[in-house]
């Protein structure tokens, strides 16, 4: 069938319009890619080198950004720390604030665990491993994972992560006799799961190596004040991971305060054991350090008797572990080391928001206020903070 001249003209007009549209879309895509590339080439300043700053910088280099970490020194470095208990202990509250008493904390914990699990395959290098964890209580039926989860999707995800942890846990489980020993000293509930153990010094080295390998820079020794911060954010993208100084130096929105906590290391251990145990009734966690010493992290309140109370809070666990709760025998001649520091809280909970671009086109992002869940939430908030930053550039 022959087409008329008018029909051919109409076809040409349609082809021409489509062609123009396509060229226009391609130009827009090229411009957007160029803007994104320029943004990625611009240096992002991460302020702070604690769990939050180093994880945020590692997240950025893994997404191919150009990163510089600036900090006075390393942040809080608990010799060992545990991830996987915050949302699993009934009622699932982190020693932090009420906002963490929810599925929100579980989601953060699962996201971080998923990022930590691959690192367990090279514990020597990363300091990350999975070990069995016992939750013990004088109350009956006080188990891990007692908090009901309404969302089927979240429950499935939590179950999958739990199985993944079980698969690589070393050892996989505690001996049956261990459970009996804890029951024999008066614990009515002895519940087992798997938890992530992090040796902080090794892990920080691993994070710094990751940042260096991605072309990033980590520099220590600079104490910045509010004016320095203002200057930095005027000329750079900045992510504020300054812990307790996030507000005073970094002008972060909210009320920040510190809850003093203590870790006690007893330089002696009467018997070796390879699992973590937490007394749910007084929040006392006990495990053995890689050098064989005994690690206690408790909920004992700040004050002149904190160390004494920390040790006393662990007496029933000692009885189950060593068959004695006589403190002089347990401490022995090598003595102990007390490690006191603060959990940095923020009324209103985690802060990982981003401002709009400033007059020079730079974005300031927050990542702070994690309280007693700064390790647990580290990868999750790093991801959220970087996503928020990306949504603004
Ligand atoms: C006893 C105890 C036990 C804990 N156990 C757990 C646990 O089992 N699981 C868990 O998830 N969390 C735990 N936490 C909480 C966790 O340790 C913290 O949430 C986390 O360490 C906070 O890290 P951060 O990087 O946000 O802050 P910080 O570690 O405080 O880092 C702040 C960084 O900012 C830098 N900085 C600050 N001001 C300036 C300045 N003016 N100029 C330059 N640099 C500056 C510092 O040098 C540092 O590098 C525990 C905390 C305590 C106290």
Q: What's the helix and strand layout?
A:
Blueprint: H1 5-41, E1 43-49, H2 51-62, E2 66-74, E3 80-83, H3 103-116, H4 123-126, E4 128-137, H5 152-168, H6 176-184, E5 189-199, H7 200-213, E6 217-220, H8 226-235, E7 237-240, E8 256-266, E9 276-279, E10 284-288, E11 294-298, H9 306-313, H10 315-322, H11 327-331, E12 336-346, E13 364-366, H12 378-392
Parallel strand pairs: 1-2, 1-7, 2-6, 4-9, 7-13
Antiparallel strand pairs: 3-5, 4-5, 8-11, 8-12, 9-10, 10-11
Helix pairs in contact: 2-7, 2-12, 3-5, 3-12, 6-10
Bound molecules: flavin-adenine dinucleotide (FAD).
Number of helices: 12
Any ligands, ions or cofactors bound here, and which? Answer: flavin-adenine dinucleotide
* CATH fold-level name: Rossmann fold
The shape is elongated
Please compute the radius of gyration using only Cα atoms.
Answer: 26 Å
> End-to-end distance, in Å?
54 Å
The share of residues in helices is 25-40%
Structural class of the secondary structure composition?
Answer: alpha/beta
Number of strands: 13
Q: Identify low-pLDDT runs.
A: none
| CATH architecture verdict | 3-Layer(aba) Sandwich
The helix/strand series, from N terminus to C terminus, equals: HEHEEHHEHHEHEHEEEEEHHHEEH
Your description of this structure?
The chain is an alpha/beta fold and 393 residues long. It has a single domain, classed as NAD(P)-binding Rossmann-like Domain (Rossmann fold, 3-Layer(aba) Sandwich). The protein contains 12 helices and 13 strands. The strands form 2 sheets. An 8-stranded mixed sheet has the order 3-5-4-9-10-11-8-12, with helices on both faces. Helix 2 packs parallel to helix 7 and helix 2 crosses helix 12. The mean pLDDT is 91. The site of flavin-adenine dinucleotide has 39 residues, from strand 1, helix 2, strand 2, strand 3 and strand 8.
């Amino acid at each position: 069938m022959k087409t008329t001249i008018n029909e051919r003209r109409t076809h040409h007009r349609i082809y021409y319009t489509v062609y123009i549209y396509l060229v226009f879309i391609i130009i827009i895509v090229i411009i957007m890619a160029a803007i994104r590339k320029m943004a990625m080439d611009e240096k992002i300043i991460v302020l702070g080198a604690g769990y939050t700053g180093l994880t945020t910088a590692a997240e950025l280099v893994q997404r191919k950004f150009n990163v510089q970490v600036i900090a006075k020194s390393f942040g809080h470095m608990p010799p060992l720390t545990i991830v996987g208990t915050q949302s699993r202990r009934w009622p699932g509250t982190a020693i932090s604030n009420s906002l963490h008493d929810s599925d929100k904390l579980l989601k953060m914990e699962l996201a971080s665990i998923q990022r930590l699990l691959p690192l367990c395959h090279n514990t020597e290098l990363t300091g990350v491993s999975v070990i069995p964890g016992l939750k013990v209580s004088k109350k009956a039926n006080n188990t891990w994972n007692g908090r009901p989860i309404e969302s089927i999707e979240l429950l499935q995800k939590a179950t999958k992560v739990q199985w993944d942890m079980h698969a690589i846990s070393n050892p996989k489980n505690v001996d049956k006799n261990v459970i009996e020993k804890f029951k024999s000293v008066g614990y009515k509930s002895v519940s087992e799961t798997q938890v992530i153990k992090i040796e902080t010094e090794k892990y920080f080295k691993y994070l710094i190596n990751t940042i260096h390998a991605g072309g990033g820079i980590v520099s220590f020794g600079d104490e910045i004040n509010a004016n320095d911060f203002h200057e930095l954010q005027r000329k750079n993208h900045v992510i504020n991971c300054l812990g307790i100084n996030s507000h005073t130096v970094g002008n972060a929105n909210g009320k920040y305060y510190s809850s003093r906590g203590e870790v006690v290391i007893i330089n002696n251990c009467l018997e070796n054991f390879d699992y973590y145990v937490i007394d749910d009734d007084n929040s006392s966690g006990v495990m053995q350090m890689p050098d064989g010493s005994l690690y206690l992290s408790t909920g004992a309140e700040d004050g002149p008797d904190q160390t004494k109370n920390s040790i006393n809070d662990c007496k029933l666990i000692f009885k189950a572990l060593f068959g004695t709760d006589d403190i002089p025998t347990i401490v022995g001649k090598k003595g102990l080391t007390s490690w006191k520091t603060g959990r940095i809280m923020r009324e209103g909970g985690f802060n990982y928001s981003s401002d709009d671009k400033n007059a020079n086109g730079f974005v300031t992002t927050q990542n702070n206020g994690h309280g007693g869940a700064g390790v647990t939430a580290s990868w999750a908030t790093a991801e959220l903070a970087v996503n928020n930053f990306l949504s603004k550039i």
